[in-house]
Amino acid sequence: MGKPRVNLEDFSDMLHFDAEQEKAVIDTSAVASVQGEVQEPAGILEMDFARMEPFPNHKFKLYEGQQLADMVESIRQFGVLLPIILWHDGDGKYIILSGHNRHNAAMLAGLSKGPVIIKENLTYDEAVLIVTETNLRQRSFGDMSHSERAYCLAQHYEALKSQGRRNDLLDEIEMLLNPHESRGNPTSVQVEQKLESREKVGQEYGLSASKVGRYIKIATLIEPLLMRVDTGEIPFLAAYDLSFIGDGDRQRQIAELMESDNYKVDMKKAELLRSYYETGKLNDTTAVQILSGEKTRKPKTSKPQPFKVKPAVITKYFTAGQSAKEIEDTIDRALALYFENLHIPGEQGERYPDE
């Protein structure tokens, strides 16, 4: 399967990825506004890395380990070949939209400046789309962590929705994000039948519509819980249930208890936490009881545990020709007789067989 991509309407025009389009990205007024930069032939500038700022609150992790080492070595040998895309925002800042890893690796390689393309007159939503789309173009969606996927899908969804570019696919995700609104709705079956294109929601990501909806919902988790989803400490479907706990303070309590008391969250605990929250019963005490396992622990029973009689005992008292039913009936009668005569009341108290 090829690398999943997101095809957004007019997105290529916005990004100006083609070489000829890149020449038109920066006009003379934009160039004049950037002091100390050298203009490259194709309308690309060279700017000090110190002047660039990361996009605020984006969740894409910087390369580490061998991947980072390879990029640093490549930049040492050949320089930064692909320009960093910057957003010159209304506050005069130069914010990185694409190229966070190149920026980091170039500085580690000892470079102080590199090629950039500057975008102006963008809305925040358009900037978000560039951040997420360029990450998808440069990386496989399958290589991203759960938190990165959740961030990417949620940002795409919110940005598109706020721009008024909703369609039937976005409506499907909306329904997936708010399943309680369709519960008990007599028309829900008709809605289900009508949404035959549900699987198309995430086809560019290689995901089903339901998986896309879960990722977007999981994006509402606070950072400490999302990080535990990435490390596998919280299973994906358990994280989906936790995301229905809409109280940030309650989510923080869960994260703190996992940290301080080393509590684990599995599917049963997550389902119970969600159920208690939705019914208004989740508080400090019940949260601890659920996370500690007290609420999910099976109650002790006074019934004896079943066991098997050893073959040596069977062959000692029964013949090979006897059926299992005959053996079971004999053992039942023998035990009844044993317990009937175990305690025989008398004047001197109780006497036991074989006394």
Largest sheet: 6 strands, mixed
* Total helical segments: 17
Radius of gyration, CA atoms, in whole angstroms: 32 Å
Strand percentage: 5-15%
Question: What does this entry look like structurally?
Answer:
By secondary structure, the protein is of the alpha/beta class. Helices cover 48% and strands 9% of the residues. The chain has 17 helices and 8 strands. The chain has helices spanning 11-15, 19-22, 28-33, 65-78, 100-108, 124-138, 146-162, 168-177, 188-194, 209-218, 223-230, 236-242, 248-260, 267-278, 284-292, 311-317, 324-340, and strands spanning 38-39, 45-48, 52-53, 84-88, 94-98, 113-119, 344-346, 349-351. A 6-stranded mixed β-sheet has the order 1-2-6-4-5-3. Strand 4 (84-88) and strand 5 form a beta hairpin. Helix 8 (168-177) packs across helix 10. It is elongated. The termini are far apart. The model is unreliable at 1-42, 165-170, 182-201 and 347-355 (pLDDT under 50).
